[in-house]
Amino acid sequence: MSFEADEEILQDFLVEAGEILESLSEELVELENDVDNAELLNSIFRGFHTVKGGAGFLSLGDLVDVCHGAENIFDLLRTGKRSVNAELMDTILSALDTVNDMFVMVQNKEPLVPADATLLAELARLSHPDVSTPAVTEVIEQATPTNEESSSSDEMSEDEFEKLLDELHGSGSVSASPNLSEPAPYSAPTPSTDGASDEISDDEFESLLDELHGQGAFSVDAAASTNSALSTSSDDIDDLEFEKLLDELHGKGNAPKAVESSVTNKPVSIPTPSPEKEVKAKAAVPKKVAQKKPAQKKSQEEPAKVIAKKAAATPAPQGETTVRVDTKRLDQIMNMVGELVLVRNRLTSLGLVSDDENLNKAVTNLDAVTTDLQGAVMQTRMQPIKKVFGRFPRVVRDLARSLNKDISLILEGEETDLDKNLVEALADPLVHLVRNSVDHGIEAPDTREAMGKPREGTVLLSASQEGDHILLTIKDDGAGMDAEKLKNIAIDRGVLDEESAARMSNKEAYSLIFAPGFSTKTEISEVSGRGVGMDVVKTKITQLNGTVNIDSELGVGTILEIKVPLTLAILPTLMVVVGKQTFALPLASVNEIFHLDLSNTNSVDGQLTIIVREKAIPLFYLDQWLVRDFVKTSRDKGHVVIVQLGNQQVGFVVDSLIGQEEVVIKPLDRLLHGTPGMAGATITSDGGIALILDIANMLKFYAKKSPINKRLRN
Questions:
Q1: 297 CA to centre of own chain
Q2: Are 662 and 342 in contact (CB under 8 A)?
Q3: Pairwise CA distance, residues 524 & 531, whole Å
Q4: How confident is the model at residue 288 (pLDDT cuts 50, 70, 90)?
Q5: Is the pLDDT of residue 149 over 80?
Q6: Is the distance from CB of 416 to CB of 455 less than 8 angstroms?
Q7: Of the candidates 380, 378, 426, the residue with the CA atom closest to the CA atom of residue 544
Q8: β-strands 648-654, 615-621 pairing
Q9: Neighbours of 252 (CB within 10 A)
């Protein structure tokens, strides 16, 4: 295909097909647990059909082939000609993987790689009905009726009724008198061209009566009474009306019982009709013979009324309620709102020192409007976390099958909204953590049964909003973690010394799994246990200004909580002064602030500490790290900010506190990239520049000589 020539169509296809493929992955796993769900089968069929149609329009033949094979299989499934089983689902999921791979190629405008021939052959094989399926067996039986069934039918078709009339009156003629030896010629009326297949005009009806009874021989009163009887029902007449009609046609009492066919010269008996046959025969008469004039007139008047009524009932067409906006444009708008927030902060600062009442009112109004605008723009960037959660049923299903485990995945809070950039950034860390729970956490079915647990393990993945943060929870009912075992592994691998391990609480020990090079697996598997990954997960979440907290109970299970801000664009911070420079600490990490007598400190293993609620907390002077040409001076008092890093608390001594402020994160200049401990910069409310601190990175770089550095790095 020509990507350039069909760019607009291509973009529409990418958007629609992308949404469909995301839902297909979740629906297929759901189908495996609910194989008779007709609505689900139809939805999956429509999904593959829609993607196939779009791909065909863009001449993506290889993509069409795979979608067509899957579509055919689901056409059989939804009509009961095949049934869902593990083998079929493996093939369909492989087909979906292939479609997803091709979709990425289309996104990147790369030539498609044809699907594996084995997969296409398997799709073709499964595209034929399964003869063992009950629905197929029933169809075969219905296609070969027994003699008893064929002979027991009591219904008379319209063709059979016409044939019966031919036998009575002679083929192509109808007698005007009971004497069938003198047939009267019959001229078929001219076919109607008004589109009504079963209705005849007044002239045709009169002509037909003349053919039956002779010119003018048919009683008008009889016809009126007959038509009156017919008008009481749309198609059917009762037994008395039918007998009366026969009398009108043949004369009273002359309706034939047994006659000879003028064609075959063989007796033709007309038995007393069964109720079913009477209904069929009587239904054919008003359809083929007569239509009452008043009824015709009514039918001619009716369409106008119906059309008018329909026109009045049809609602006026509504305009589209949604539009597609490029994400780059949303980012641009968000950046401009960020600049407006900075101006707002600046004006608010000026208003605080001004005595001009009008200025203060204007600044207050601007503050309110800017806050509302900021919230509205942020909402346009919000996406439900279901976009990430949708991939996990497939992840857990495939892992459980490869590890021979029975695992149920429970998803909660899928409609929780957060910034689109966070949705994309959280995808990989969450996948790794869920895989870790399946591989490390959930035991084998036999092991669980021996422990008195259900054979099927459970993994819960939930999301909820807590203030300006999102809480993500991954919980399993697996084996849990042994704190002492974790400490011993850390000592053996040089991650921790024995003295530090002895002082470490169980909850702190659980965080050791995030240490670089740490793994509890003694064997390397394709799933996990390579000694890498968990530290990368924690680093990624920290970069998102998030925190990770882990707790576990041996034999019961593990709970892992991730807390991230709603958005990455605007960051609530605590502004502090170190030396003469302003710095911003992410407010999510700040635990508490207090004024401290700095002479009341202790040294443990060469590390300065303070005691807060009977717990020793390491203490650092930020000016030693962040002030150029630092000169040590003795201070008796100071402000201490306690920050939380996972399960570890750390105290920072600062010179003064400014207060809380929402800031817009600006990336560092290229020359400053890689500066230790700096996450970015922002413009303060007084027009100055403040550096935003990356606390975890700063500690790793500057606290190298501290005995607790290894604990902080973990």
A1: 54
A2: no
A3: 9
A4: very low
A5: no
A6: no
A7: 426
A8: parallel
A9: 10
Residue (of 208, 177, 178, 179) closest to 192 by Cα position: 208
Q: What is the pLDDT of residues 240-254, one digit of tens each?
A: 666 676 666 666 655
Compute the distance between CA of residue 603 and CA of residue 708 in angstroms, rounded to an integer: 12
Whether 675 contacts 627, CB under 8 Å:
no
For residue 592, report the phi and psi dihedrals to the nearest 5 degrees.
-160, 165
Residue with tokens 């021989």: 217
| Residues 673, 678, 680, 681, CA torsion sign | negative
Cα 709 from Cα 311, distance rounded (Å) = 78
Q: For residue 641, what is the enclosing H or E element?
A: strand 637-645
Angle between helices 86-107 and 117-126 (to 10 degrees): 130
Judged against a pLDDT cut of 70, whether residue 277 lies above it is answered with no
pLDDT category at 238 given cuts 50, 70, 90 is: low
- From residue 611, give the alpha-carbon distance in Å to each of 501, 533, 603, 645: 20, 35, 11, 18
Cβ-contact 564, 469 below 8 angstroms: yes
Query: In 3-state terms, what secondary structure has residue 403?
Result: coil
Average pLDDT along the chain: 75
- Which whole-number Å values give the CA distances from 21 to 17, 27, 51, 89, in the listed order? 6, 10, 8, 16
Is the pLDDT score of 173 beyond 50? Answer: no
pLDDT at 211: 62
- Is residue 479 within 8 A of residue 490, CB to CB? The reply is no
DSSP, residue by residue, 648-684: EEEEEEESEEEEEEEEE-BPPPGGGTT-TTEEEEEE-
pLDDT at residue 38 above 80? yes
Q: Let me know: does 610 contact 651? Beta carbons within 8 Å.
A: yes
- How far are the Cα atoms of 126, 479, 625 from residue 29, in angstroms, in the given order? 19, 26, 53
**For 526-578, what is each residue's pLDDT tens digit?**
454 433 468 788 888 877 878 888 999 998 999 999 988 877 767 888 999 99
| DSSP assignment of 613-625 | TTEEEEEEETHHH
The enclosing H or E element of 190 equals none
- Which element (helix H / strand E) includes 502? helix 498-503
Nearest to 54 by CA among 41, 42, 40, 68: 68
| Range 132-136 average pLDDT | 65
Residue 105, burial from CB neighbour count under 10 angstroms (0-12, 13-18, 19+): middle
pLDDT band at 665 (very low <50, low <70, confident <90, very high): confident
Which two three-digit tokens encode residue 575? 């502004």
Shortest CA distance to 572 belongs to which of 352, 367, 345, 403? 345
Is 199 buried (19+), middle (13-18) or exposed (0-12) by CB count in 10 A?
middle
Amino acid at 415: E
Largest CA distance in the chain: 138
- 128: tokens are 């034929």
List the alpha helices (DSSP H) in 381-456.
Answer: 386-389, 392-402, 420-436, 445-450
Alpha helices in 200-274 (DSSP H): 202-213, 220-231, 239-250
Higher pLDDT, 631 or 662: 662
Helix (H) or strand (E) segment spanning residue 586: strand 581-586
238: buried, middle or exposed (CB in 10 Å: 19+, 13-18, 0-12)? middle
Residue-level pLDDT at 199: 59
pLDDT tier for residue 204 given thresholds of 50, 70 and 90: low
Distance CA 398, CA 208 (A): 75
Of the segments 67-71, 189-193, 323-327, 341-345, which one has the largest average pLDDT value? 67-71
Length of the chain: 714
